[in-house]
Amino acid sequence: MNFSFNNKEKLKSKKLIDTLFSNGQSVSAFPLRLVFMSTHFDDGLLFKTGVSVSKRHFKRAVDRNRIKRLMREAFRLHKAQYFDNISTPHAFMILYIGKEIPSLIQLENKMSQLFDKFSKANSNITPQENEADS
RNA sequence: CAAGUAAAUCGCCUUAUCGCUGUUUUAAAUUUUUAAAAUGGAGGAAAGUCCGAACACCGUAGUGCAACAUAGUGGUUAACGGCCACCGGUCGAGAGAUCAGGAACAGUGCAACAGAAAGGAUGUACAGGUAAUGCUGUAGUGAAAUCAGGUAAACUCUAUGUGGUGCAAUGUCAUGUAUACCAGUGCUUGAGGGCUGCACGCCCGAUGCUGGAGGGUAGACAGCUAAAGUGUAUUGGUAACAAUACAUUCAGAUAAAUGAUAAGGGCUCUGUAUGGAGUACAGAAUUCGGCUUAUAGAUUUGCUUACUUA
RNA sequence: CGGGAUGUGGCGCAGUCCGGUAGCGUACACGGCUGGGGGCCGUGUGGUCGCAGGUUCAAAUCCUGUCAUCCCGA
After folding, report:
1. What is the pLDDT along chain A (134 residues), one digit of tens a residue?
2. Taking a C-beta distance cutoff of 8 angstroms, is the pair A120, A82 a contact?
3. Please, are residues A63 and A101 in contact by the beta-carbon 8 Å criterion?
4. Domains, in order of start, for chain A
5. How many angstroms separate the CA of A19 from the C1' of C31?
6. Which ipTM score applies to this complex?
7. Which of its termini does chain A have fewer beta carbons within 10 Å around, N or C?
């Protein structure tokens, strides 16, 4: 099992993030929201992921860092099972929209719910696109 | 012992598993990736951005006015509005705390209510005094009543100082585009611009400038961490601080690393046979010196003690 | 990194420049007009002027520090 989450798998390009937020679709499982978009990466990876916490809800930088670290941890430990059946490359941004600092266990549960919803949404959309094309 | 006061220091630790990031070495691969190993990886305030510098660029930044800052004396420092010492004022019983602490015989203002009168004004009562007169004292109003009055954190004056913008500075490379379109304005009789407000002066200036509607980039490297560094000791100095000697290398990310989980141990509070609860404030962003603010808890040292009680 | 604004009854705002009385609308309570409601009229309650310190005889107002909220530029 690969538990790593290194620099290449993080979403870093400012341009890509801008297009992601303007064109991407989203699913949510409170207190998480996933923004995703089908795209293409030059270095051949299947996905790149970023995390984000609003400054409006958490004024202290310490709290924001804590939540982002927990989110990365929850994603890192379970990403293998989320992406078993994905073939096309995607960009992801996970937002935390709650107002209290969560625990790792809560986040892990919500993260699986979130990616279940994503899989459903993804499988619903793809055939429609195919029909439109045909 | 208690209460107080001044100053200094620390601000959780260990192990295991899974990760992140910088550097170095080796190997693969081959010209920037992968793997392994070694090693470094948040703070006393990293915070607020309130002062002062370093460094970089703008035209080596001209004159006048304006604006702003500072304000006892001396010292300290790269510099300061910081710090230290002393003098003076105010507060406190004291140790001690605190102060924008220059000028009101340069000028202009301001003073509610009360009061006869609030800065060119002298009234009432009583007493004293005179040739005569608010001439003198007391009472009364008020913060202040003739005192070279108060007020400059009112304008002002005096002294001193300040060019501007900031690492998104700045340099190099890569990628890409529109010197196109519409409207206005201007081309040496000068539009507009130049990184402080105004005036003058100076400089640049036609493939220009302003607006509209649009197009493109938003990556990499350098700057970027060895420095007014840190620690210890000695010497000089009342002190801030300085000098010398020895030792030492101590983050460098960029949607932004420095973490997560588990177990055990400290410490504090509570309870006392086991236990339970808590463990603060807070996260580097060019770098330093200060200031200010937040902070569970712990440690050390100097000094004071009026009243009250023993 | 830099620049700016705001904070005053429960709510929305004046007053701050140029210092002496904190006021307006709305809301709330009571009374009146009406058969009742609405509306109008009258009376009243309610404010540490964000916080701390200073200047002054006197501070919402002047000065310094600080806290919070909001906005703007690169």
Report:
1. 467 787 778 887 777 777 787 777 888 888 888 888 887 776 667 788 888 888 878 888 888 888 888 888 888 888 877 776 666 778 888 888 887 888 888 888 888 888 888 888 877 654 433 333 32
2. no
3. yes
4. 7-121 (3.30.230.10)
5. 67
6. 0.78
7. C
